[in-house]
Amino acid sequence: MFLIAGCGTPQPKQQTSSAEPAQTTKSEVTEIYRDDFKKVVDGKQTDLFTLKNDNGIEVKITNYGGRVVSIVTPDKNGEMSDIVLGYKTIDKYMNDKMFLGALIGRYANRIAKGTFTLDGKKYQLAKNDGPNSLHGGNKGFDKVVWDAEQRGDTLILNYISPDMEEGYPGTLNVTAVYTLNNKNELTLELSAITDKTTIVNLTNHTYWNLKGEGNGTILDHELMIPANYITPVNETLIPTGELMPVEDTPFDFITPKLIGRDINQDHPQLLAGKGYDHNWVLNKDPGNLTLAVRVYEPDNGRILEISSTEPGVQFYSGNFMDGSVSGVSGKLYEHRGGMAFEPQHYPDSPNQPKFPSVVLKPGEQYHNMIVYKFDVQK
After folding, report:
1. Any catalytic annotation for residue 342?
2. Phi-psi region for residue 222, left (φ > 0), alpha (ψ -120 to 50) or beta?
3. Residue 23 DSSP code
4. Number of C-alpha atoms within 13 angstroms, CB side, residue 290?
5. What is the rounded CA–CA span in Å between residue 260 and residue 277?
6. What distance in Å separates the CA atoms of residue 136 and residue 55, rounded to the nearest whole number?
7. Which of 86, 244, 292, 365 supports an S-S bond with 313, CB 3.0-4.6 Å?
8. Class for the domain spanning 34-376
9. Measured between alpha carbons, how far is 101 from 142 in angstroms, rounded to an integer?
């Protein structure tokens, strides 16, 4: 745990691995320059940090929004590519509307009508997604500058969100720790404490394309999600409060299948989300670190596995991407040119008594661990 509360910062554990370095070949990976990420925003310095392991994997993260800017990994032939969507400059991130690579908080996903009641008091949040509140409001954790400290292969980010920021009660002390190890795992550990009862739901919103950023759509990726149910939504993407079995529907990814196979079916939930934009209820015990998602790109052999301690995962298939945004390589990000997987508690949980609680009280600690594992199948 790396929660920063007051003075002193705990020492991260040393990573050890017996993995052999991968044999990699030269490839066209766009240069991203640290100087392009240095700026004073709200009186704080932004920067770009690089984590590398012995196998050639390289991760770049900015403390503006805690955003993952780039992840370069090898394919089955050792060719290196950047497999996440991102920008080359801090200025582009400051104007981003897609939450590319961002840490999301205080509340990931949607809250109906931007309101919730806690201890008998009603709170009003910004309505920044039609009639609802999305991803923390007008200025969520994706738009703040986090305090940053790098120690080798570990980046420690800290942000103190003041009482009533964006309408949320309590001063929330949040720490996000990114660590890259020689097992080709990028771990994100999120923790938080509060001085007043509040609600918390944190995640990361990286967009992936295992063919390489800007290289077409994600429809030909093979996806597996170990979940028997989703939380179905209404026309504004707020859960109805029920659970919908995925069996015999386009939402069944228990057996791996191509993302594009069923995405255009005439199913009410696909019409509501304009594709996949739903929370899957993972088959797991609460709090255990278990597999949430496995993605495979058949042509180049890249595999992404995401494990999490959270009860759900939101899968978003890039339905609102329209080719108007260009990324790191200068290529336009076309419709469904990226996919996001957000390990999380369920959307609108504060207003859904049947859903797992997102309430955090003084003396308690919020904790969410996400592990991204990169592999290849030859």
Report:
1. yes
2. beta
3. P
4. 15
5. 14
6. 36
7. 292
8. mainly beta
9. 9
- Give the long-range contacts of residues 189-192, CB within 8 A, separation 24 or more: 189/1, 189/2, 189/367, 189/368, 189/369, 189/370, 190/103, 190/366, 190/367, 190/368, 190/369, 190/370, 191/1, 191/2, 191/3, 191/365, 191/366, 191/367, 191/368, 192/3, 192/360, 192/365, 192/366
First-residue to last-residue Cα distance in the chain: 36
The pLDDT tens digits of the residues spanning 301-346 come to 999 999 999 999 999 999 999 999 999 999 999 999 999 999 999 9
Cβ neighbors of 164 (< 8 A, separation 6 or more) are none
Whole-angstrom Cα distance, residue 256 to residue 350? Answer: 32
| Partners of residue 103 on adjacent β-strands | 204
Rounded Cα–Cα distance for residues 289 and 311 (Å): 10
CA gyration radius for the chain? 20
Q: Is the pLDDT of residue 20 over 70?
A: no
Amino acid letter at 127? Answer: K
Among 205, 221, 278, 345, the active-site one is 205
Place of tokens 């994100």: 188
Active site residue 367: no
pLDDT band at 286 (very low <50, low <70, confident <90, very high): confident
* Domain limits, the chain: 34-376
Task: Tell me if 33 sits within 8 A of 262, measured CB to CB.
Answer: no
Question: Is the backbone of residue 36 left (phi > 0), alpha (psi -120 to 50) or beta?
Answer: alpha
Q: Which of 153, 25, 120 is nearest to 80 (CA)?
A: 25
Q: How far apart are CA 296 and CA 222, in angstroms?
A: 5
Higher-pLDDT residue of 200 and 20 is 200
Nearest to 235 by CA among 264, 262, 269: 269
Catalytic residue among 213, 221, 342, 345: 342
Phi, psi at residue 141, to the nearest 5°? -65, -15
- The encoded tokens of residue 107 equal 């509340």
